Amino acid sequence: MSDQEQSEERLPRFTTISGLEIDRVYGPAHTARLDYARDLGDPGEYPFTRGIHPTMYRGRLWTMRQFAGFGSAEDSNRRFHYLLEQGQTGLSVAFDMPTLMGYDSDHPRALGEVGREGVAIDTVEDMKVLLRDLPLNRVTTSMTINAPANVLLAMYLVAAEEAGFLWPELGGTTQTDMLKEFIAQKEWIVPPRPSMRFIQDMLVFGTRELPRWNVISISGYHIREAGATAVQELAFTLADGIAYVQAGIEAGLDVDAFAPRLSFFFDCHNDFFEEIAKFRAARRMWARIMRERFGATRPRSWWLRFHTQTAGVSLTAQQPLNNIVRVTLQALAAVLGGTQSLHTNSMDETYALPTEEAVRVALRTQQIIAHESGVTNTVDPLGGSYFVEALTDRMEEEAGAYLRRIDDLGGMVRAVELGFPQREIAEASFRFQQALERKEKIIVGVNDFVIPEETPIPILRIDPEVERIQIDRLRRVRAERDGAAVRRALDRLKRAIESGENTMYPIVEAVRARASIGEICDVYRAVYGEYREPAII
Amino acid sequence: MAEKIRIIIAKPGLDGHDRGAKVVARALRDAGFEVIYTGLHQTPEMIVNAAIQEDADAIGLSILSGAHMTLFPRVVALLRERGAGDIVVFGGGIIPEEDIPALRAAGVAEIFTPGTSLETIVRWVREHVRPRGVRA
Questions:
Q1: Which among A112, A185, A537 is the nearest to B70, CB-wise?
Q2: DSSP state of A145
Q3: B23 and chain A: CB distance < 8 Å anywhere?
Q4: Which neighbouring-strand residues pair with B111?
Q5: Is A433 within 8 Å of B13 when comparing Cβ atoms?
Q6: Cα–Cα dist B63/B94, whole Å
Q7: Closest-CA distance of chain B to residue A319, Å
Q8: Which candidate, A302, A388, A312, A314, places its Cα nearest to that of A34?
Q9: With contacts defined as CB-CB under 8 Å, which chain B residues touch A115?
Q10: In this predicted model, what pLDDT tens digit does every residue of A179-208 receive, in sequence order?
């Protein structure tokens, strides 16, 4: 074989899945500018590139937090009791589409959607069923809810209080990340600015009343799933975080009073090293932003703590067993990237909510990584790798350029109003699809290695009866409550919105009077109008 | 010159997963069709109104929330009620194989499941959708 043949390469250009160019080999020249103390630091030391804890998984493994919620409140409550019996200590609730959009189950737009992708919650009575007999002073509850997060938080508080718990005992998280909703997930009620005002009210209320509640979980997951690159996910998530910290400060809070309770939520896609670099860069960037930009002084305010979910969008309907392998690689990257909590997707999720067997395999994947692979025995084993450090730098550089563009536009709220992140993501997802069509990127079983016959796998079905039962319960609550008290509470909420007073207290009162989510959100819509997205294709 | 085929791409239901709808809309536009994207969170009534007002030749529906068995047939039924049953309805999203026969029986002309190439969709539209003037 000649020298020429030996040096031939398969492709003219090698890139990460997000399109960053990769060199043939990495060496000392790639990390020459790296200063260990300034840019890496030992695990547990600023800027936390190598992890936020000195011992990481030698101390405690990540939390294996699978997400559940489907059908009726009764169905979901049964699933929570089952999970607690299995030793799970945290609950994670998925709500259905009408709840996410602030509509009651009998709203015409809710047709066909009730209980489909999560649990339907119309009034505090549903929340009471959802939480029935759960030890709310001992388990933490994460709620994936954004536009009506203030309503669901109020329902949680009232349901817990009626079950005999005190507010300060309650621990959990509401996602409350509206900016990523406008950018990517697209379940909204009112426009961005009033949405930010509701978040400010929640931050102030949480700091005052709920010492164990995390009001916001800043989420890149949905941004990535909407077609963003890894760099875009990193940049837009941190930019959203900056906007919330800014909002908290503008609401009169001390940054160190609420920053330690902010947490993040990232996606983990297929490109193994790019993802690890993304997580390491995220930690370093956030530490610098909090310390240098916002002047936070508590080390805990500098920590970027994050939950990871493997990339739903990367799973294929074709040859679904292959998804187990994808999820394994993604979960391994999340662990090597230093995640605090992990959700592994199930192989059947391109079709429907997962079956019990598929969820178990997904959970076992995490347990095998944790207990059999040995990768948890030392902290940040890839630290110092020429390639990983160079890629971490590259991620920081590229994401930093986006952060500067967003600052130039006037911040993330303005950028969202202008459709800037939305357009960047639409562009990236179109380019990726074109690369697939040209076979520049391969998805096994989809554009290469295709087999004609597919083996059908079992999928979970939601009983359409759920919709009727849910609507019956809502109508019963409406018939039995004191209608005048509900109207008074809703009027008082409207006045609070208009006068600029903290809205959380009147929302709690409305919930206590058994106002429904749709009725409360109609007040928001009446004052602020519904959000209409700038059209982008 | 032949009239351009007009296609409405719509997101019925409440889910905000619009990546696929937008990518398909762009690919159809690049292929030379006239494409109108309705935006998110549309009811079947809104979609049918838009299709009739825009004098569309086809409607492409995208849904990932599991509400397709309720919403897709509703769009077809409303078109028929409004005397616009000749508008071709096709769809895509997270749709289990076993739901497809029922959707076809309800009058949905084609369902594209995840992983379908843009080229396949463009070719199908060329073969199955005719502009107004040419329609029987």
A1: A112
A2: -
A3: yes
A4: B91
A5: no
A6: 7
A7: 11
A8: A388
A9: none
A10: 999 999 999 999 999 999 999 999 999 999
